Amino acid sequence: AQSVTQLDSHVSVSEGTPVLLRCNYSSSYSPSLFWYVQHPNKGLQLLLKYTSAATLVKGINGFEAEFKKSETSFHLTKPSAHMSDAAEYFCVVSDHLDSNYQLIWGAGTKLIIKP
Amino acid sequence: EPEVTQTPSHQVTQMGQEVILHCVPISNHLYFYWYRQILGQKVEFLVSFYNNEISEKSEIFDDQFSVERPDGSNFTLKIRSTKLEDSAMYFCASSPRVHSNQPQHFGDGTRLSIL
């Protein structure tokens, strides 16, 4: 069975410092992995996706994530945090079967940016 | 950029009443989904819909729930007799086709409050 674990429920960083949001997954197949962001009172916006091409994936707003199969990780990073990055971030995995396609969500990590 | 739109943004309903949540998916998308997020909990899959029928549903999606595509643009979620535990944020999503590497595009959600 697939699952996603986001290791931190809250991460607090100062503006201008690096961001690291951790995600580990388990999957029986070669997974596709996504990061979504949810700003307060807004919907879920796709940040980036990994689909078995390059292991380092670049997304919007300066975020990137690296797929590490040996560590079953897909951590999200950004070199320099901005106040507008304050939001909740979800790591998501999907299976590789076309007939049974469903997103499995992590519990989310709330990113807090200190001025 | 095309968006998934959901109405209303907030719905307050008495327990036992029927409620219909509305979604307009992106126009050239063929696959539609409903998710819910109870306050403080994970995003949970409810149902997927393709070619005018349900393609997959979760255990949450019991006989009280139904979905419909009444015309070429709307995709609705109906809860026949609401319960207190139905209070949640409900998200509609769509994708152009079903494949594990296809991201789903989400609306801003409807916050359903059952009194």
- Radius of gyration over C-alpha positions of chain A, nearest whole angstrom: 14 Å
- SSE ordering of chain B: EEEEEEEEEEE
Q: Could you say which overall geometry of chain B the principal axes of the C-alpha atoms support? A: globular
Number of strands of chain A: 12
Mean pLDDT of chain B, rounded to whole units? Answer: 91
Question: How would you describe what is shown here?
Answer:
The complex is a heterodimer of chains A (115) and B (115). Chain A is an all-beta fold. Helices cover 0% and strands 53% of the residues of chain A. Chain A has no helices and 12 strands. Chain A has strands at residues 3-6, 10-14, 19-21, 23-26, 32-38, 44-50, 56-58, 64-68, 73-78, 87-94, 103-105, 109-114. In chain A, a hairpin with a 4-residue loop joins strand 8 and strand 9. Chain A is globular, with a radius of gyration of 14 Å. Chain B has 115 residues and is an all-beta fold. Chain B has no helices and 11 strands. In chain B, the strands form 2 sheets. In chain B, strands 2, 4, 5, 6, 9, 10 and 11 form a 7-stranded mixed β-sheet that branches. In chain B, a hairpin with a 5-residue loop joins strand 4 (31-37) and strand 5. Chain B starts with a strand and ends with a strand. The mean pLDDT of chain B is 91. The chains are: A mainly beta (115), B mainly beta (115).
